[in-house]
Design goal:
Blueprint: H1 2-34, H2 40-72, H3 74-94, H4 98-101, H5 104-132, H6 140-168, H7 171-176, H8 181-197, H9 204-212, H10 219-226, H11 228-258, H12 264-292, H13 294-317, H14 321-339, H15 342-348, H16 355-372, H17 374-381, H18 389-408, H19 414-424
Helix pairs in contact: 1-2, 1-3, 1-5, 1-6, 1-8, 1-11, 2-3, 2-5, 2-16, 2-17, 3-5, 3-8, 5-6, 5-16, 6-12, 6-15, 11-12, 11-14, 11-16, 11-17, 11-18, 12-13, 12-14, 13-14, 13-18, 17-18
Length: 427
């Protein structure tokens, strides 16, 4: 299990490195380089628009790769999604800017971002099923928290490389070529990830389905027909997590550097410190979820978020590094409470024959609701003077939406299910 979980974690870390590096670059440099005829604000909004395209592609990737996972196995998904995301990320780093090829530059940027989103849409479902379908029932949440830790590691890697480039290069060097280096590094990471995954075995659940001839013929059609309500509820429930992450990691970076005048190295350092402390809390919270249930952990995370969002925005608006870090830390820990158990929770909601498609579509549709538009909306809501209370109100509304959706979802903890069956047996 440790070998499987480590390979799963490495894959999600590499894939989310690719996705995160684009968000950081969009906040710092892509606007002027690919949309130079726009005003600074419009250029940032345009860069965030291409950022959002990756999220729109993720549910499509979840459908495509989910079909592969449910028809042909979880293992092929892990390889194909990693190759697609790695190649497109390296290609972004090689892309000429607007000054070199004109309007073709933003068009190609949009296309590559779409392909990158397709790859990531397939990665999560394959990675969590690798651990969930191998793990013992009473430890599914713990082992499935490993791939959930991967995005934090990927974010730290991405922003660590970007921070190093930002610290050692002049502004002119960074804008000229330094921002490309983290994209090129994605190729090396992708090769390492493929080597780690080369010896992985197919999951027991899928082997059993294949042996019995019970694989779904059209998994997505079956999901739409029989589980559409469950998909919509999980998408709404998880949307807050995406909104929180990309408010803190992408929009706040742009807001801090452009509006508050904070050095980009300082902003990156504050965000990275909070994410660094969040990472180890995910498996700890997963253990709590093993004991008390998946849904209670998610409800607690939503509640904490709803209470913390306004203080977080007040701390961010000070521009003081320590206060900004504390604001980000509170938001990161509330996220950890929610997403620590999601890797086990979503697959447990679906039967094995459509599990790869159902879990992946719900998870990535949440990215559209919570991640695609959040940087754009937050940028528009923070245009006035003073603290960005409009952004806080928007995020609080997202927290209430997620809280309501989680309240309507069932509990799936295996121990709880066995207790209910035992109590029902005498009757």
């Amino acid at each position: 299990m440790l070998r499987l979980a480590t390979a799963s974690l490495a894959g999600t870390a590499i894939e989310f490195y690719d996705f995160a590096i684009y968000g950081t670059a969009a906040a710092l440099v892509l606007g002027p380089l690919f949309f130079p005829s726009f005003s600074p604000l419009a250029g940032t909004l345009a860069a965030f628009g291409t950022f959002g395209v990756g999220f729109l592609a993720r549910p499509i990737g979840a459908v495509v790769f989910g079909h592969v996972g449910d028809r042909f196995g979880r293992r092929p998904v892990l390889f194909s999604s990693l190759v697609l995301t790695g190649v497109t990320t390296v290609a972004v780093g090689c892309l000429p800017t607007y000054d070199a090829i004109g309007i073709l530059a933003p068009v190609l940027l949009l296309l590559l971002r779409f392909l990158q989103g397709l790859g990531l849409g397939g990665e999560w479902g394959g990675a969590v099923l690798l651990t969930v379908e191998h793990a013992p029932a009473h430890r599914r949440a713990l082992w499935a928290s490993f791939p959930q830790t991967g995005p934090s590691i990927g974010f730290l890697l991405a922003n660590g490389v970007m921070l190093a480039m930002s610290a050692v290069l002049t502004d002119a060097q960074f804008t000229s070529w330094g921002w490309r280096v983290p994209f090129w590094a994605a190729g090396v990471l992708a090769v390492a990830g493929l080597l780690l995954r080369s010896s992985l075995e197919e999951t027991p659940d899928f082997r059993e389905l294949a042996a019995k001839g019970e694989r779904a013929g059209a998994p997505f059609a079956e999901i739409v027909r029989n589980h559409w309500r469950l998909v919509l509820l999980t998408a709404g429930a998880l949307s807050l997590g995406y909104a929180l992450v990309y408010t803190m990691s992408t929009w706040s970076l742009s807001y801090g550097t452009e509006r508050l005048g904070v050095d980009r190295t300082v902003m990156l350092g504050c965000i990275m410190a909070a994410v660094f402390l969040k990472g180890p809390m995910i498996p700890v919270a997963a253990l709590v979820g093993e004991r008390y249930g998946r849904r209670p952990m998610c409800l607690a995370g939503c509640t904490i978020s709803a209470l913390w969002i306004f203080p977080m925005m007040g701390l961010l608006s000070t521009g003081q590094p320590l206060l900004m870090f504390l604001g980000f830390l509170g938001g990161s820990l509330s996220f950890a409470a929610m997403f620590s158990v999601v890797g086990a929770y979503l697959p447990e909601l679906y039967e094995p024959r459509v599990r790869c498609t159902g879990a992946a579509v719900g998870y990535n549709l949440a990215g559209v609701l919570g991640g695609a538009l959040t940087p754009i909306i937050a940028t528009a809501l923070s245009r006035g003077d003073g603290p960005p209370w409009g952004v806080a109100a928007y995020l609080t509304g997202m927290a209430l939406l997620s809280l309501g959706c989680f309240a309507l979802l069932p509990e799936t903890r295996p121990v709880a299910a066995r207790t209910v069956e035992a109590e029902a047996a005498p009757a």
